[in-house]
Amino acid sequence: MNKFVITGGKKLKGVIEVKGAKNDALVIFAASLLTSQPVFVSNVPDIEDTKRLLELVEKLGCGIKQIRTGEYKISAKKLKSYLIDPEIAKKIRASILLTAPLLARLGRVKFPHPGGCVIGERPIDQFLSGYKNMGAKTRSRGNLYEISTSRLKGAEFIFNNITVTGTESMIMAAVLAKGRTVLKNCACEPEVESLADFLNSCGAKITGAGTPYVAIDGVAKLRGGSHRIIPDRVEAGSFVILAAATNSNIIIKNCEPRHLDSLLGSLKKTGVNFKVNKNSIEIRSSRLKSTNIKTHEYPGFPTDLQAPFCVLLTQSKGSGLVHEIIYEGRLMWTEELKRMGANIHTYDPHRIEIKGPTKLRGREIESPDIRAGMAYLIAALCAKGRSTINNVYQIDRGYEKIEKRLRKIGANIHRI
Ligand code: EPU
User: Fold this and answer.
1) Phi then psi dihedrals of residue 153, to 5 deg
2) Residue 47, Cβ neighbours under 10 Å: how many?
3) Which residues, 6 or more positions from 220, have their beta carbon under 8 angstroms from its beta carbon?
4) What region, left, alpha or beta, does residue 161 occupy, with left being phi > 0 and alpha being psi -120 to 50 degrees?
5) Which segments of 180-224 are extended strands (E)?
6) Is the shortest distance between the CB of 29 and ligand 1 below 6 Å?
7) Positive or negative, the Cα torsion across 150, 152, 158, 160?
8) In which region does residue 166 sit, left (phi positive, over 0), alpha (psi from -120 to 50) or beta (all else)?
9) Alpha-carbon distance values, 7 to 81, 148, 197 (Å)
């Protein structure tokens, strides 16, 4: 098992480039199954989660060819299996994204409850009731769910909870369905809009993606196409926070600053000195003061940046309240941050208060999920002394060759 050894307490300097978005790549791979013609996907990050999803797609009978670094051809002409490999699916929540294309193309899908980050309950009730509304029959047998339909039918569906992959799945289920589907209370994340752009370029008829109301008119068939994965807003945000927390001068390149409005708004309140350009953000070393954050669905403060932001608050003067509203288990990682010296009071599973600034101390830490893993990495870079982060598979799931990219801006980080 790989680990990172980090010696912190050093200012960093230079330029770091943002890779393609994990959560866009995962859904575009799934959407490629909706057409029997080839799909070309570029700007794909080389991370563990994209590898796992491609393995799943290949096991379903699809052809995958890597054309060059970050570019893949996916051909779902020979899509034949409707069983999503349980062993792999248990490792990755995004495996659920394959259910809609399989239902649309084969009329049947069998899959286990999807795994992934341990950040909360993560039910799939919205997917199951969405598919049922479109005429599918759902049942569970042993550890597997089975859904089947002769052909999905357009329907009206209101999400009880705003769900990103749920919205994406219902859009994918509806593009080849008979008639019109109207979805309400949809997730508005940029990845949902990107998915709709890709599907529309293949002949789908989707309007409203990126707003809470999405309408889809089913078509008989989709053509193949190509898609460039959008920049990863969570990676960009993580680098922005890393730069501010370590009091460094860093330029974050190849990002889409308009996807980070909410984070940048909070950064302004902490007094971070930054400049936004068209596709880059420059962070300059600044004196930090605390602020409160409350996570929210897009365009609110992203839950995926809550953990890195908590580390920033440990380096800021004053007291900041962090309210995590999306997941009930996504503040548990802060217990280890306390052991690194952070002054944190936990009110309940959804709310903590961080008082700063505090000097963090290097420690041996276990990375529990992608974003908490990145937060520990930032904490280790802020901390005095040496830290070891175990289970870096979790960080590799979402950040491409992170140690090499951080070393280029002066970080003392090594993979062992
Ligand atoms: N929810 C339900 N029922 C459902 C589905 C979701 O109640 O059927 C609830 C969840 O319990 C949660 C909320 O809805 O409280 C949001 O969950 P959501 O379904 O939006 O999460 P997701 O689609 O599984 C995606 C990202 C996550 C990101 C969340 C929130 C992908 C592949 N994953 O997850 O990314 O945290 O949206 O923005 O797009 C990550 O990248 O590290 C990550 C975890």
Assistant:
1) -115, 140
2) 24
3) 176
4) beta
5) 180-184, 205-207, 214-217
6) no
7) positive
8) alpha
9) 48, 53, 43
Instruction: Using the mean position of ligand 1's atoms as its centre, give its distance from the Cα of residue 93 in Å.
Output: 9
Q: How far apart are CA 246 and CA 272, in angstroms?
A: 11
Per-residue confidence (pLDDT) for residue 120, from 0 to 100: 67
Instruction: Determine if ligand 1 sits within 6 Å of the CB of residue 117.
Output: yes
Task: Using the Cα atoms of residue 407, residue 117, residue 372 and residue 361 in order, give the sign of their dihedral.
Answer: negative
Cβ(98) to ligand 1 under 6 A?
Answer: no
CA 32/CA 275 separation, integer angstroms: 37
Query: Rounded distance, CA 314 to CA 246, Å?
Result: 11
Judge whether 382 counts as a catalytic residue. Answer: no
User: What is the per-residue pLDDT across 132-182, written as a single tens digit (0 to 9) for each?
Assistant: 999 999 999 888 999 999 999 999 999 999 999 999 999 999 999 999 999
Q: What is the reported pLDDT for 114?
A: 86
Round to whole Å and give the CA distance between 119 and 33: 29
Q: Is 372 in the pocket of ligand 1 (CB under 6 A)?
A: no
Preceding omega of 357 cis (within 30 degrees of 0):
yes
Return the residue whose CA atom lies nearest to atom 16 of ligand 1: 163
Task: Compute, in angstroms, the gap from residue 272 CA to the centroid of ligand 1.
Answer: 29
| pLDDT tens figures, 198-239 | 999 999 999 999 999 999 999 999 999 999 999 999 999 999
- What domains sit in the chain, N to C, each tagged with a CATH number? 4-19+231-415 (3.65.10.10), 22-228 (3.65.10.10)
Which helix H or strand E contains 376, and what residues bound it? helix 370-382
Q: For residue 171, what are its two tokens?
A: 């859009």
Ligand 1 atom having least distance to the Cα of 160:
7
Which residues 6+ apart lie within 8 Å of 13 measured at CB? 248, 249, 250, 409, 410
Token pair, residue 163, equals 């769900």
Cβ of 125 below 6 Å from ligand 1? yes
Residue 113 · residue 97 · CB < 8 Å? no
Q: What is the largest CA-CA distance in the chain?
A: 62
User: 125 is written with which tokens?
Assistant: 């009730």
Q: CB under 8 Å to 106, separation ≥6 — which residues?
A: 79, 80, 82
